[in-house]
C-alpha cells in the first residue's frame, strides 16, 4: 500500500551514516541521493531500498525535526531482526525494545526497536513463525 516514506533528520551526514550501517543488516542500501541543487528547498535527501528502488527516505528538512516517527521494516527472518537491532546499537542508536516476540500483536510477531539519532523509533519485524 505504501510506496515510500520519508522522515526529517537534524544532522544529515550523521543520519545517513547511521542508516547505511543499520539498514545494511537487513539487506537495504543507499540507492539514490538528491543534492541541494536538485531540491526546491536546498536540502539533501537519501533514499534507501532494494533493487534500486528507494522506499525509505531521510532528509535535512529546513523546517526541522518537529515530531518523532515510527517506521517498521519487514524482514524475512528473526535473525535479520536481531542483526538490525545489533547494528542499530553499534551505529549509535538507543535500544527501545530488544528483539523478541510481541504476542499481543499476533503469535508470530518478532520485532526489535531502536531510537535513531533524532528520536525516531525504527523497527525490524518478522511475521513468520520460526
Automatic annotation (TrEMBL):
Domain of life: Bacteria
TM segment ranges: none
Domain VOC: 1-127
Pfam families given in the database record: Glyoxalase
SUPFAM superfamilies per the UniProt record, alphabetical: Glyoxalase/Bleomycin resistance protein/Dihydroxybiphenyl dioxygenase
Name of the protein described by the UniProt record: VOC family protein
Amino acid at each position: 500500500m505504501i510506496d515510500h516514506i520519508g522522515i526529517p533528520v537534524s544532522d544529515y551526514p550523521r543520519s545517513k551514516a547511521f542508516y547505511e550501517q543499520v539498514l545494511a543488516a537487513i539487506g537495504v542500501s543507499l540507492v539514490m541521493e538528491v543534492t541541494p541543487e536538485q531540491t526546491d528547498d536546498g536540502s539533501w535527501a537519501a533514499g534507501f531500498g532494494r533493487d534500486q528502488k528507494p522506499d525509505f527516505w531521510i532528509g535535512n528538512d529546513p523546517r526541522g525535526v518537529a515530531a518523532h516517527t515510527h517506521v517498521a521494516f519487514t524482514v524475512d527472518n528473526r535473525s535479520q531482526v536481531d542483526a538490525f537491532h545489533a547494528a542499530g546499537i553499534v551505529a549509535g542508536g538507543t535500544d527501545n525494545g530488544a528483539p523478541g516476540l510481541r504476542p499481543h500483536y499476533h503469535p508470530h510477531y518478532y520485532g526489535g526497536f531502536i531510537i535513531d539519532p533524532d528520536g525516531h523509533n525504527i523497527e525490524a519485524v518478522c511475521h513468520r513463525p520460526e
